[in-house]
Specification:
5 strands, about 325 residues, binds zinc ion, Rossmann fold, alpha/beta
Length: about 325
């Protein structure tokens, strides 16, 4: 179980934020950013619990009715947009119920929390609709936003928030969290070294035995092509892995976004394994080239839902990567 104290150990910005929330001095709006798997959502949810918890002791107590309902997402004063699909943008319509609720007082007379995960997915219209509430603190509402980065958010929204950048976890911290979950120490060490500072990814790796083989395959293919002649052997490796297609695209997109953030000086260099033969080319690639690759990955995802064959999708994707990184 990760607690707010686990986050305090990760760095001063997180520690200061947790302390402010616990002492009743929470900022009106906080934007938590960081690469995938650093625990932005977990941190935001724990902070929401801490803000709604009415226990007399340390908050969140995770035992009281408020904590339990906040954790389950059913607390009437925890306002979240209803976005079900993972990759969809957040539109004004999704925020309508939240904005409407804000025109009344908190349902239970205490504090109220607006939790907006993946805030970078809000359309410009949705962000504008939110602005008024962000601009006018009412004393009872706290906004918690999470986002992969600050790009995609309007400067007017960003400037209303305290920005807390969650740094990647140190391998030792990850190892400690895994050991607390009774993971065998050799395995914990391997995963901590491979997970690129992402606790979420570390847990995925531990819980999903196929993960390590998928990651290796992803690195030996997508992260090992640099010219057209590298494509056919990579394509051959992917041919029979149709069942892993979505997981492979997830892994590719996750790492690709890290390279993109790094290219814009907004994140640390990803740490690929020695299986990624062209990692250097990814690290040197321009933001424009990486954006083109990201568009190709997103197109591949759409094609997956339209019955395009996995082989054709993989082939096209590998050629695009080899052209952009050449
Ligand atoms: Zn509580």
């Amino acid at each position: 179980m990760i607690t707010l104290d686990s986050f305090c150990a990760l760095g001063e910005p997180q520690r200061a934020l947790v302390q402010d929330v616990r002492s009743g001095r929470a900022p009106h709006a906080t934007l938590i950013t960081g690469i995938a798997g650093t625990g932005k959502r977990t941190l935001a949810r724990l902070l929401a619990c801490a803000l709604l918890c009415r226990s007399d002791g340390d908050r969140p107590c995770m035992q009281c009715k408020d904590c339990r309902r906040a954790q389950a997402g059913t607390h009437p004063d925890l306002l979240m947009p209803s976005v079900r699909e993972k990759d969809r943008s957040i539109k004004v319509d999704d925020l309508r119920a939240v904005i409407q609720a804000l025109s009344y007082h908190a349902a239970e007379g205490g504090r109220r929390v607006v939790l907006l995960e993946n805030a970078q997915r809000m359309t410009v219209q949705a962000q504008n609709a939110l602005l008024k509430s962000l601009e006018e603190p009412d004393g009872e509402t706290t906004f918690l936003l999470t986002a992969s980065g600050e790009t995609g958010l309007l400067p007017t929204v960003r400037s209303r928030c305290r920005v807390v950048r969650v740094q990647p976890w140190a391998p030792a911290e990850i190892e400690r969290e895994l050991l607390r979950r009774q993971v065998d120490s050799a395995q914990a060490q391997t995963i901590a070294a491979l997970c690129g500072g992402s606790l979420g990814r570390a847990l995925d790796m531990y819980e999903n035995p196929a993960f390590l083989s998928q990651r290796t395959l992803c690195e030996r293919t997508f992260f090992s092509v640099r010219s057209a002649q590298d494509v056919p052997p990579a394509c051959a490796l992917l041919r029979d892995r149709k069942d892993d297609a979505d997981a492979l695209l997830d892994l590719l997109e996750q790492q690709e976004r890290e390279y993109l953030l790094h290219s814009m000086n907004a994140g640390p260099a990803p740490k690929p394994s020695k299986d990624a033969l062209c990692a250097h080319a990814w690290e040197q690639a321009s933001p424009r080239a990486l954006e083109n690759v990201l568009s190709a990955v997103l197109l591949a995802r759409r094609q997956r839902t339209c019955n395009v064959s996995w082989q054709a999708i993989a082939d096209k994707l590998l050629y695009t990567i080899s052209e952009e990184l050449n």
